[in-house]
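User: Can you help me understand a structure? I only have the sequence.
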Amino acid sequence: MDRYDALLINVGDQSYALPLLKIQEIRGWSPVSPLPNTDPSCLGIINLRGNVLPVFDARRILGKPTPEPTAQNVIVVATVHGKPVGLLVDSVSDIVSVDGSTVTRPDETDNWSSRLVDGIANVDDRLVPLLSLDSIAGDSMPALPDSTGDLPELTGDGA
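Assistant: Let's start by predicting it. Here is the structure, written out as tokens:
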């Protein structure tokens, strides 16, 4: 695998990396409108230039303490399964180049394997987990109108 760029985010006391090609924008925190019966990691939705954007709490997803969001938090808008999704993080710190051939990828027998982590990169002599955007929000996305404006079919369990 070739080199690629990654966005370093900070959640709690740890840095994580997201693939830069999936990042649309970084925006400041703005209050969300909560949705009933959604995954607890889904804080709610915001209006992003006329479109509904679900916002997920990276702290909750990654098992960190979850204080109330503040003006210092940011929302990273990324593409997951072809749709924009917001990820609330503590801060964004850098864009780094990752050598894909040096990324350590877990297999099912590794005791550090996690569906949230695609691999571990060595960035400036520190180990940084590469987060899987598809796993972080993919299964937890609330049912929202699709691009035609029609409502999707409801599943009944709300998760």
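Now, to help you interpret it: Residues 143-159 have pLDDT under 50 and may be disordered. DSSP finds two helices and ten strands in the chain. Let me know which part you'd like to focus on.
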